[in-house]
């Protein structure tokens, strides 16, 4: 250690009177570091990849499920014209329904040949007239869809024959008896799909808020415990440090949810419920916007949890209120319905999930999410202001856990 | 040469005065040692000087005027019980800390690499800090304080945990900064080290300055003692008026003498009784002064 230092840069030395002492952009440096260290974190990267693989696997499963075609060979004795006509009609019906079932006709010479085909595996079912009506025989109970299709076809054939015998037609007989279904809002989702979607949104909120929230808390306490924060505090205002941490972790949290939402939408687009895509997209866009604003508030509160702790071990105590809040929102929003859900959709933080769910169910007017978002933004501003004070009050205090009250009263 | 001074600096925590009207100077170009027992208020004082802790009353001055935020941003600081980002390479975090202080990225990188090279850590620059030995982590920490030609250095226990060779290396580095006229204030528990290194010394006890000056000034202000060596038992000196025998061990005695006349009288008496091998003033060691002022 004897070579003299040859080059050195010089630190900023004077304030130029404009109020900018060169620390204004510091939040950007802090945010960059938060994002880079998080992205380089192995646990985070592995968790993200695993989540994406799970979502993609679900998508692949749905796609496979929807494109799968089961072919059934129906054996009939070739001499029975009604049976042959019924199977042909059922095959046409299956083709128009496009429900993943295909029916093939397998003509055999007689009943014995049909039984042999059934037990030999060439035929899946055997259709033949019985003593009173028709019989569908399978090795086991025949498939429901095939039974229904063949039943309908046989019924039509027999009805047509009976009608002709009575000197009338099927159309005349069944005039005025047809039941059709109509939906007032064809894009509204079914109850089951809605529950599933609200559960998914609540879970996205929960996972994103808890993981990114605790990461900002531990990143704050890491700097506090190592006293790096004292070096940082002499270099830049603490407000800049807080802003950088909140923005950095928000970018990660929102980016992660965007990624999940994108893959989820792709999964839905490829699945049989792709008809719900427009409603889901609108709801997900609202969710991401609400989440971005709501997470700002949560990130600020979690940063205070980090500042209140003195060691990493204290975090589980100091972050308990935030964790309760996030878990409360999670459980309430995916179980709520009716007017309770409407109330929740205006309560800050709970509305991050509740309002997008109402948008999805088609129950919210266009102005409702806007109003609710404004409320959430106001809450976020309040949370940021209070947190900023508590953060500055607690960060430089060492020795044990600090309470919110002490932090807010302290002037360092 | 810019001087760093504190005037009547006071900090209370509730009813307790951790730092009580502390005033001293750390002149530019000199190493000033800051000593005192645990809880004497050294760290609290240094944190107030850096603006990390709010000042209850009093003031910190730099170059003859109240210290500003921009001044402090140009100071190098090592907090006590410090650490680093364990899972980040040394190079990355030094560049980050330097950039926060306004040093452009390219300069920060070049300077970091130079420092690490001098400290023999060039090949470890990309290792996570947690993989470095404690001594090497300490070297990275001092580098963080020395980046960007700081205008003053405030170092809390910079040598704790370092072996003597590492201490010498670090002192060489600090001397380069005092050579540019920068004031360096550092706290330490190692009195021998402080005595060997420092041009100035401030001793703190229960939040108050009890001694402040150059080591020579402090030694002169301390109680002067004399050593008397005879060729026979020296026990009789206890009875001489104006002589306080601190310690008598056979023919050797450590004495505090009331004045110069007492010394002359003592010498005459001793010569009457036999041979005098030695009568010499004893400069008090810093450890002795420290014990006196903090007792």
Written account of the structure:
- The complex is a heterodimer of chains A (412) and B (295).
- Chain A is of the alpha/beta class and 412 residues long.
- Chain A is built from 16 helices and four strands.
- Helix content of chain A is 67%, strand content 7%.
- The model of chain A is unreliable at 1-10 and 12-19 (pLDDT under 50).
- Chain B folds into two domains: 4-220, P-loop containing nucleotide triphosphate hydrolases (Rossmann fold, 3-Layer(aba) Sandwich); 223-283, Alpha-Beta Plaits, CATH 3.30.70.
- Helices cover 36% and strands 29% of the residues of chain B.
- In chain B, the strands form three sheets. Chain B has a six-stranded mixed beta sheet, with helices on both faces. A four-stranded antiparallel beta sheet of chain B has the order 2-1-4-5, covered by helices on one side.
- In chain B, strand 4 (57-62) and strand 5 form a beta hairpin.
- In chain B, helix 3 crosses helix 4 (105-118).
- The mean pLDDT of chain B is 90.
- The chains are: A alpha/beta (412), B alpha/beta (295).
- Chains A and B meet through helix 1 and helix 8 of A and helix 2, helix 3, helix 4 and helix 6 of B.
- Chain A: InterPro entries: ABC2_TM (IPR013525).
- Chain A: Residues 43-386 form the ABC-2 type transporter transmembrane domain.
